[in-house]
User: Fold this.
Amino acid sequence: MIENFKLGPINHVGVAVPDVLAAADMYRRVFNATDISDLLELPEQGVKVIFVNTPAGQVELIEPLGAKSPINKFLEKNPLGGQHHLCFEVANIHNAKAEMEAKGVRVLNEPRIGAHGTLIIFLHPKDMGGVLIELMETPEPDHA
Ligand code: CO
Assistant:
C-alpha cells in the first residue's frame, strides 16, 4: 500500500550566487554564522555548494560549475544572485513523484542523488506558484 503523501519540514532554501566562498563569508561577517560546511563540488550536477546551517534548516549556496550548469541562466538574469529553490523533505521520493504526477504537477527529473546524498526531484515552477520546488528524501541524522 502506498502511504498518503505527507509534506515534511523545509530542509533548505537554495540561493544561487556568483561565488559561494564570498557568499559564505557574508554570512560569517553579517550574521556571525559559524556552522558552515566546506565547499562541495558536484560536477555531475554542475554546481559548487556550501551549506550554512541554522537552528532550523540550511541555506544552500550554489555557484555554477561549468558552462552547462543549470543555474548559469538564472545568474544571467540575477547577476547578484537570488533565491533559486525551496526544498521540502519527504519520506519516499518515488511515492512523492507519483503523487505529484497524479495531481498534474510536472516533475522535472527522474529521482537522483542530490547534494545531501539522498534522492531528489524538482517540480516545475509554473505548476507551483512560480517557485522551483525540490523534494528530497529525509537524510539520516548524521548527514542532515
Ligand atoms: Co537544493
